[in-house]
Design brief:
Layout: E1 2-3, E2 14-15, E3 30-32, E4 38-43, E5 49-55, E6 60-67, E7 73-80, E8 89-95, E9 101-106, E10 113-119, E11 122-129, E12 132-141, E13 147-152, E14 164-169, E15 175-181, E16 187-199, H1 210-218, H2 222-231, E17 241-248, E18 256-258
Antiparallel strand pairs: 1-2, 3-4, 4-5, 5-6, 6-7, 7-8, 8-9, 9-10, 10-11, 11-12, 12-13, 13-14, 14-15, 15-16, 16-17, 17-18
Length: 259
């Protein structure tokens, strides 16, 4: 159970009961996202990521992560500490009594603010996503809680041709294929993802916001997500192994990326 004063900031939440620690045998202290961008990380006593510093020649971003008593991420704060012209932002996450994500919003320019509802294995989403103010779509989950299908119900401008996307996984729950389809059921895009046998060092973090990260990554379809998930595995830490390649199966723009 949690004790908190309504007037206190969210960071002052106090848990009376011990949380179960996240079982981790790997802690990334730092990494290089590129030749010019580095990250450093710190963790709390429950092995949950508590802060991240992202440094480039022109920017330094400080991330802070706040959790509730069930290890659900409830707030993410970002500050740019090198250049004062860039404002900070906060993201907020809400859960139901089954620890399911039911709302997400960010203070950054109103870009994202949506709610999620659940019926059996279908999750319905409505609100603002990537500046689409009337976004409406549904996601189908498998027995492991992974998204296997997205059906888009609202206009998404240049991405409107994609009406649904299908996803396939391997035995380790790694996403291995994503296919975009039009309204008539014709395949538009298809990507395949290959992995090595090593454990992704970011795996097991941010479990409570899996659906938010999935929406953020795949809202515009599987094809456009290929670069996102392969360029920064921290942003989508739900793949157990490390990506080796992302291949365009239909050769639309003919990319075959070796990571």
């Amino acid at each position: 159970s949690c004790n908190s004063d309504d007037d206190d900031p969210i960071e002052d939440v106090i848990c009376n009961e011990d949380n179960n620690k996240v079982l981790m045998n790997r802690f990334v202290k730092s990494d290089m996202a590129s030749n010019y961008v580095s990250n450093s990380y710190s963790y709390n006593e429950l092995n949950l990521l508590s802060s991240r510093t992202r440094t480039s020649p022109s920017r330094v971003y400080e991330y802070e992560y706040v959790y509730d008593c069930s290890n659900n991420l409830i707030e993410r704060n970002v500050e740019e500490t090198k250049d004062p012209q860039y404002d900070g932002s906060s993201s907020f996450y809400e859960y139901d009594d089954q620890n399911r994500l039911i709302a997400y919003g960010t203070s950054y320019q109103g870009e994202v603010d949506y709610s999620l509802s659940y019926e059996a294995n279908i999750v319905s989403v409505s609100g603002t996503v990537w500046n689409d103010e009337n976004a409406s779509f549904s996601m189908q989950l498998n027995n492991d809680g992974l998204v296997t299908r997205i059906d888009f119900h609202s206009d998404r401008a240049i991405f409107n041709e994609i009406k649904y996307t299908l996803f396939e996984y391997d035995a380790n729950d790694n996403l291995i294929e994503g296919e975009d389809y039009d309204e008539a059921g014709n395949i538009i895009n298809s990507i395949s993802i290959a992995y090595d046998a090593n454990t992704n060092p970011y795996y097991d973090q941010f479990k409570s916001i899996y659906l938010q990260r999935f929406i953020n990554t795949f809202y515009h379809g599987a094809y456009w997500a290929g670069d996102l998930i392969s360029s920064d595995e921290f942003d989508f830490p739900y793949l157990k192994n490390n990506i080796e390649s992302v291949v365009d199966n239909l050769c639309n723009n003919c990319f075959s990326e070796v990571v």
